[in-house]
């Protein structure tokens, strides 16, 4: 799925994050991968479902990102769920680390995509939704679908 305006090719999206969290801000980060991991990413074998990010020692890591082993990688394959370092500016990392530790925010990888030849991760600064918030957003989405469906039926008979 290509992003029309910037030429980015989306590899994986974390739809569960949009259901479970309010996304306040988005940041772009590079990700440090090994060769066989990049080949596996090119095949689309990535899952961001239960992933989150942690700030440790002035660095930021993506925890729980599952990149399936490359089938022709044999001994060079890495652990599929290992922590992967994200590449961001030091001041951004310090800002995010402060917000996460004080205000109850969470860092969640929202999507992974190619920007040129580089693999990038979109990281969201998120607040958790309560159960009633999830119900409200689900009801809004369903109402929107229903309106679209009715509009489509109405335009069909005009």
Tell me the β content.
25-35%
Count of helices?
4
Spatial separation of the terminal alpha carbons: 34 Å
Main sheet makeup:
7 strands, antiparallel
Mean pLDDT: 84
Q: Give the overall form.
A: globular
Radius of gyration: 19 Å
In the predicted model, the low-confidence regions spanning at least 5 consecutive residues are none
Spatial strand sequence of the major β-sheet: 1-8-9-2-7-5-4
Number of strands: 9
Class per helix and strand makeup = alpha+beta
Indicate the percent of residues in helices: 25-40%
Secondary-structure element order, N to C: EHEHEEEEEHEEH
What do you see in this structure?
This protein has 158 residues and is an alpha+beta fold. Helices cover 35% and strands 35% of the residues. The protein contains four helices and nine strands; from the N terminus they run βαβαβββββαββα. The chain has helices at residues 15-20, 35-42, 90-103, 131-157; strands at residues 9-13, 21-31, 46-47, 52-56, 59-63, 66-67, 84-87, 106-115, 118-128. It has a seven-stranded antiparallel β-sheet with strand order 1-8-9-2-7-5-4. It has a two-stranded antiparallel ribbon with strand order 3-6. The longest helix has 27 residues, at 131-157. The chain starts with 8 loop residues before the first strand and ends with a helix.
Task: Fill in the keyword field for this structure.
9 strands, 158 residues, alpha+beta
Task: List the SSEs and their pairings.
Blueprint: E1 9-13, H1 15-20, E2 21-31, H2 35-42, E3 46-47, E4 52-56, E5 59-63, E6 66-67, E7 84-87, H3 90-103, E8 106-115, E9 118-128, H4 131-157
Antiparallel strand pairs: 1-8, 2-7, 2-9, 3-6, 4-5, 5-7, 8-9
């Amino acid at each position: 799925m290509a992003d029309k305006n910037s030429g980015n090719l989306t590899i994986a999206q974390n739809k569960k994050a949009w259901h479970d969290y309010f996304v306040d801000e988005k940041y772009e980060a590079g990700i440090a991968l090994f060769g066989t991991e990049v080949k596996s990413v090119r095949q689309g074998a990535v899952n961001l479902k239960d992933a989150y990010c942690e700030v440790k020692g002035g660095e930021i890591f993506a925890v729980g990102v599952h990149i399936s082993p490359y089938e022709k990688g044999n001994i060079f394959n890495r652990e599929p769920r290992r922590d992967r370092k994200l590449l961001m500016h030091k001041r951004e990392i310090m800002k995010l680390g402060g917000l996460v530790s004080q205000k109850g925010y969470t860092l969640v990888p929202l999507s992974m995509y190619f920007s040129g030849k580089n693999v990038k991760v979109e990281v969201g600064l998120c607040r958790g939704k309560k159960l009633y918030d999830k119900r409200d957003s689900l009801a809004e989405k369903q109402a929107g679908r229903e309106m679209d469906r009715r509009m489509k039926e109405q335009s069909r008979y005009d």
